[in-house]
């Protein structure tokens, strides 16, 4: 998918979801209206999806979408926001793929590259569970590995 700059919102996630899954799900791009859980994790109740997403996107907008952050600060901020939006889990299925595209845009917009291939799905899911339980450190550890060095002007050209 083509990079899209901020501002981002729940609508951005819906657009990404629709682009990814419109051939697969009739409800692609639509927020779920039933409760869902995975293992011990109970995701956001349907009526809280819009307000909780708005709260997190407002927070990211208020800090300028992490633009100008040092790599260290970016890693921590992105881990926290990723974990929060994962718990919002707007869609019945496809949340991981949708959210990773949005975070790729956020990270690239902040001036860094991201390589998701440096994490496997077991470690990733575990880190998301830890985040749900209140510790974003595991996600931060993964982002520290997957986020590259600042993109230089010559690379961007
Ligand atoms: N037990 C759990 N607790 C919290 N978050 C979880 C748990 N299991 C998975 N996740 C998160 O949910 C995502 C999977 O959600 P979903 O199945 O809706 O999307 P997906 O696109 O099919 O996922 P993926 O491509 O990441 O496997 C994972 O990427 C992870 O971030
Ligand atoms: Mg899935």
Describe this structure in words.
This protein has a two-stranded antiparallel ribbon. Helix 2 (49-62) packs antiparallel against helix 3 (71-88). It has 7 helices and 4 strands, in the order αββαααβααβα. It is 54% helix and 7% strand. It has one domain (10-22, 46-156): Fic-like fold. The model has no long low-confidence stretch (mean pLDDT 96). It starts with 9 loop residues before the first helix and ends with a helix. It has helices at 10-21, 49-62, 71-88, 95-109, 121-132, 137-146, 153-156; strands at residues 37-38, 41-42, 112-114, 147-150. The protein is mostly helical and 157 residues long. Residues 38-39, 41, 86, 93-97, 121, 124-125, 128-129, 132 line the site of adenosine-5'-triphosphate.
What is this structure's SSE topology?
Layout lengths: L9 H12 L15 E2 L2 E2 L6 H14 L8 H18 L6 H15 L2 E3 L6 H12 L4 H10 E4 L2 H4 L1
Helix pairs in contact: 1-4, 2-3, 3-4, 3-6, 5-6
The structure holds adenosine-5'-triphosphate and magnesium ion.
Task: Provide a quick synopsis of the model.
The chain is mainly α. It is built from seven helices and four strands.
